[in-house]
Specification:
The structure is a single chain. The chain is mainly β. It has one domain (2-134). The protein is built from 1 helix and 6 strands. It has one helix at residues 136-158, and strands spanning 2-8, 11-53, 56-68, 71-83, 86-99, 102-132. The chain has a 6-stranded parallel β-sheet, with no helix packed on it. The termini are far apart.
């Protein structure tokens, strides 16, 4: 693996390096110790530290994730920070910070939220102002109703 690589305005299949700086490029898979990316489209990013600005990433897995103005399908790490971004699934094992962003499911031991929206937030400690679609009571009610409807449909479809 190369020590340091800089990529600008390229379409690549796989990029591997200890330190990586990528600008205005499309990459299928990124593997790095430290990855700094600006205006990048990538299918997957696997790094110790990932800093992404204005990117579209399918799956990000890193110890420390910082996303600013990004769209990410899944972002998973020890510490996850999402600013002005959208992530349907955001997991921060230790810490998940979301600022002025939208998320589907946010999971973290400590979740800190500022002016954001999410469908479901799961965390030991949740701080900040967030708009959620479901709290634990409404999620339980929706699950019970869906289970009841499913059970009734199975009874009628058997006959």
């Amino acid at each position: 693996m190369e020590q340091k690589i800089e990529i600008e305005s390229q379409n690549m299949d796989i990029a591997e390096a200890e330190f990586m700086n990528v600008k205005q490029s499309t990459i299928r898979a990124v593997e790095a110790g430290s990855a700094e990316m600006q205006q990048v489209c990538a299918l997957s990013v696997d790094a110790e530290k990932a800093e992404i600005t204005q990117g579209a990433i399918g799956f990000v897995k890193a110890t420390d994730i910082s996303m600013n103005q990004c769209i990410s399908g899944v972002s998973m790490g020890e510490k996850t920070e999402i600013n002005f971004s959208f992530s349907p699934l955001s997991i921060g094992k230790e810490e998940a910070k979301i600022k002025k962003s939208a998320a589907g499911l946010v999971i973290g031991n400590n979740v800190e939220v500022k002016n954001s929206a999410a469908l479901i937030v799961v965390g030991k400690n949740v701080e900040g102002n967030i708009t959620t679609l479901f709290d634990w009571k409404s999620a339980l009610a929706v699950t019970a109703v869906a289970g009841g409807i499913f059970g009734i449909l199975r009874l009628f479809l058997r006959r």
